[in-house]
Amino acid sequence: MVSHKEFVGAGKTPGLQVWRIENLDLKPVPKALHGSFYTGDAYLLLFTTSAPSYNIHMWLGDECSQDESGAVAIFATQLDDFLGGGPVQYREVQNFESNTLVGYFRSGIKYQKGGVASGFQHVVTNDMNVKRLLHIKGRRAIRATEVDMSWSNFNKGDCFIIDLGKDVYQWCGSQCNRFERLKASQVAIDIRDNERNGRAKLHMVEEGEEPAAVIEALGPKSTIAPGTDDEKVDTSNRKKGALYMISDASGAMKVSAVAPSSPFKQAMLSAEECYILDNGVDRNIFVWKGPKANMSERKAAMSAGQQFIKDKGYSNKTQIQVLPAGAETTLFKQFFIDWKDKDETTGPSKAYTIGRIAKVEQVPFDASTLHSDKAMAAQHGMVDDGKGKVQIWRVENGAMAPVDPSAYGHFYGGDCREQHIIYTWQGLRCSQDELAASAFLTVKLDDSMGGSPVQVRVTQGQEPPHLMSLFAGKPMIIHSGGTSSKGGQSQTSSTRLFHIRQSSSRATRAVEVEASASSLNTNDVFVLKSPKAVFVWRGMGASDEEMAAAKHVVGFLGGSAAQVSERKEPDDFWSALGGKKDYQTSKSLQNVVRLPRLFGCSNKTGRLAVEEVPGDFNQSDLATDDVMILDTWDQIFLWVGNDANAVERNGAPKIAKDYVDSDPSGRRGLPITTIKQGAEPPTFAGWFQAWDPKMWETDPLARVFGRV
């Protein structure tokens, strides 16, 4: 086996590792710069979960050389070999990355001009002498591409970031819509917080209102071009796939047809063979490696996929996924009408287990163990093990007020807080003054510590597990409104309800929700405190970890709690909630094999396009100017935003029907429920933790701009 010195630590601890090809060798990229790619280079990425299971991505920039793309392919094969042939391998091309890769970088992928050949290095710096222009594209998967500093690169339909070091300007074209502005601001905030350590100032600029500094940087303004159509594949019309068997029995690789179009049956895959699932019209090729296929076929899987693309005349932007048996992705499984994972069936021929690709075991709830789950560390930003000294301040009257250590782990929706590694936590309903004060105090605190701390800005509901690990085994408790100062902004009500859920990344939150039976969810645990009693309600799909977290909430609220099981509730439980009401009773969230998927449907470009939301989704991913499809496998929800245009609204039922009818797995006759923004029933809202019915009372754009 060929090994490389960089492989010594590869896959040893869960998380994301990134290398760039430099002089045909591997050079690691600093963590702070993960998600930033030079367009003249090739990169190798390894994502490791705690199972462990592995994803290998080879990323090719538009201008990378033949030698570099050849070298990264060789290193990917060697790394796959080093890890025992178990990883899923992805071939990624600039601008056409898989949702898996995009999901690692929720604040967007940045493409920088140049590369190793022209002397550009990946160095973490506070350098303020920056001058660059970034073109922001994408509503779900955000991509920021560096272009020449010239007005000729602007258009009215997109957002651009003019990065001048100390000042970062987000320029919004007159045809650019609200959701795109919202997403572009995530990139701008990321530049300020991560690349400049909070020391840059953000400015929002509308087309036609450019300040003198922007004109000085770009020269006299010329005519701005109209918006352009995004070259996105219309995935609402997913074509059928075709299935081929590949074999080298004759001495040369041979491809033979198994089935001309999906849906396929899982029994078509023999454990002794390798297969290509051809979805090339949608720029996807899957190579499936049977566990008993011969070693030369298994090792040649990626090159077989690349040769297949050439032979078929497909675009060189086509994504390739190489899948060992037992590690199949959702995108692959959707082409099979009867797919069952190995814990549900004997599989293609007979039962087999591949340890390194086993499902991630759910560990008992203990926030202090979150730091060792480095799988999540990469995706959710764990920076250390969370055992250092913790100090928390509340922003009060524009100054920093220390929080009593006994209240650590409790956050109030009306607060802004800071922490070191400096976290600035911002409640969804905190005031503009508090937002501004927290930004100022973060820089002040950073300066007092010599300008070295890492700064992380956190919005309520999107807390990284590292922040949650600081509370020593307790869940994070988020209170409604108010403030953690004694006698805060608002009085707590006499009846309070806390919703406890462990997310797919194993972070447990207890969020105060409206004290109504409609807030309940069969998959979760709730703590109800009324003037007369305290109840811990366990839904039929709730986990032991969520029950353990409930003890901490009860400990804070005080009193002795009565345990209540779903469907065995006493009358005084319902009366405390104001009577029985409908709530989310679908058990689909339990032991989910097929994770729910969220798609945005938009015809902003003049034709209907459907795009998946990458990574774990939340309520803020619902774009108010679009129609969204939530696919929970056994039913489809169509969510219509208030600002969706007439074409999207009127076409919504057809969008959903086309989505189901074009499903490669052959699912038919699913119930399709159409829902309007602001009138979401529990059966829909239950898929989002701590659904906030008041979220849209404040403009999401104003909320984010308030944070800058």
Automatic annotation (TrEMBL):
Transmembrane segments: none annotated. It is found in: Cell projection, Lamellipodium; Cell projection, Ruffle; Cytoplasm, Cytoskeleton; Melanosome. One of its GO terms (cellular component) is lamellipodium. Residues 26-101, 142-214, 258-332, 400-468, 508-550, 610-684 form the Gelsolin-like domain. The gene is scinlb. It comes from Scophthalmus maximus (Turbot). The lineage of its organism: Eukaryota, Metazoa, Chordata, Craniata, Vertebrata. Interacts with NUP62. Interacts with NUTF2 and RAN; involved in CAPG nuclear import. One of its GO terms (molecular function) is phosphatidylinositol-4,5-bisphosphate binding. One of its GO terms (biological process) is barbed-end actin filament capping. It comes from the Eukaryota. Gene3D superfamilies: Severin (3.40.20.10). Belongs to the villin/gelsolin family. Keywords: Acetylation, Actin capping, Actin-binding, Calcium, Cell projection, Cytoplasm, Cytoskeleton, Nucleus, Phosphoprotein, Repeat. This is Macrophage-capping protein.
